[in-house]
Amino acid sequence: MYRKVTKLFARKRPAPRFLRYFCRTKSFLTGKYFFQSNNNQPKNYEAEVNSGSLVRKLHGFAVSCGQAPTARGEAEYSVMTISTSDVTIPSTHSATIRGRQDIAIYPQVSGTISKVCVKEGEVVRQGQLLFIIDQVPYKAALQTAKANVAAAEASVATAQLTYDSKKELFAKNVVSQFDLQTSQNNLLTAKSQLAQAEAQLVNAANNLSYTEVKSPSNGVVGVLPYRVGALVSASIPQPLTTVSDNSDMYVYFSLTENQLLDLTREYGSMDKALAALPNVQLVLNDGSLYSQEGRIESISGVIDTSTGSVQLRAVFPNPGRLLHSGSSGNVLLPHIYKNVVTVPQVATFELQDKKFVYKVENGVATSQNITVSPQSDGKNFIVTAGLTPGEVIVTEGVGLMREGTPIKPKGAATTATAPAEQPTKEQ
Fold it and tell me: What tens digit of pLDDT does each residue of 308-358 get?
């Protein structure tokens, strides 16, 4: 006999009818499971939900599966209370650095350079010798001028004696009036020649002195394009060198016409603006901040028609000779705003070219349109409209937030409700 073996297959129980309307989904944020409705609702789905029977069945199913219902807590956000304060925001302007004096040194006489007395970058004093040009021809010219003066002086003496003699003879009626007048004219001619010879002597002496090229001011020697033996003159294309007075540096920068008008209106006049403007700072070409502060000394009275800007000049002390003439940088011009509302830029978001923040009203986030000033320090906005002191805004996570999101400020005390005690059944 064959024994009949019956294999029993475990048959899965069909899911309860109410679960056919939902699918079990895992949250990617919390890792917990929840039920989400699908598209298989029956016609009486709403009536069943409204009656509460469906919710009770779901609750009972979750409990029977060993999963206790959990309540999702409100997310915590950083918030700030709006208040007014004085804010200083600098504006950046491209600048060019120049020495107080940049003097191009040209020779006043022609000749070959016989000696270079300085080196490039050397600090010189006013009157210090820089170059010597060949002096031989100019010394000879000076000696010639001196000889011409001596000859002219002798001619004057001779003409004076002749005139005195003719004058006495004319008094005795020995010579005519013509002879007397002629001798007087010869004396005047000799005196004129003497004056001319003396002027030539002065010119020769000056030319000789010009062969010694001296520094016209204190400063630093620039490039030396000409060396010993080079033929130079007053018409050379490049100067012998440039002496820059770097004790104080002039820093030039520009403001637009509108910025100049705002500045004038703020202080009342140009003179008052120059007296009241705060000190400015200088950012060097490598991005570092110069240790010394500068002072705006002048504002040009002419607006450049090609650029629509006006030039300003600030003076910076240069005790360590860190600044060099011809270099560039950026001037930080501070603007002081009094009693203004500021918000962090991370607390704002843009929608259709408008800026918004989330205010906290009745514990939920409410979007608020704001108007901000174009001036900012890169971290905060100056709010000109849309917020008033005392209001509370959210300062983090605004990019993922939505209208009506429940807000719980960070650090706020959490109010917890203790579970009610169940009455014990008397035995």
Answer: 899 999 999 998 889 888 899 999 988 888 888 889 988 898 888 888 999
For the chain, first and last CA: distance in Å? 62
Token representation of residue 293: 């502060």
Beta strands in 52-137 (DSSP E): 76-77, 79-81, 84-105, 111-116, 123-124, 129-133
- What does the longest C-alpha to C-alpha distance in the chain come to? 197
Q: Which amino acid, 2?
A: Y
Which residue bears the tokens 């003076």? 315
Amino acid, single-letter form, for residue 299: I
Classify residue 306 by its DSSP letter: T
Of 192, 190, 197, nearest to 142 (Cα)? 197
For residue 249, list its beta bridge partners.
Answer: 99, 316
Using one digit for the tens of pLDDT, what is the confidence trace for 203-243? 999 999 999 999 998 888 989 999 999 999 999 999 999 99
Centroid of chain to Cα 233: 42
Q: Which residues pair with 104 in a beta bridge?
A: 242
Other residues' Cβ atoms within 10 Å of the Cβ of residue 152: 21
Q: How many residues does the chain have?
A: 427
User: Among 333, 403, 304, 323, which residue's Cα sits nearest to residue 362?
Assistant: 403
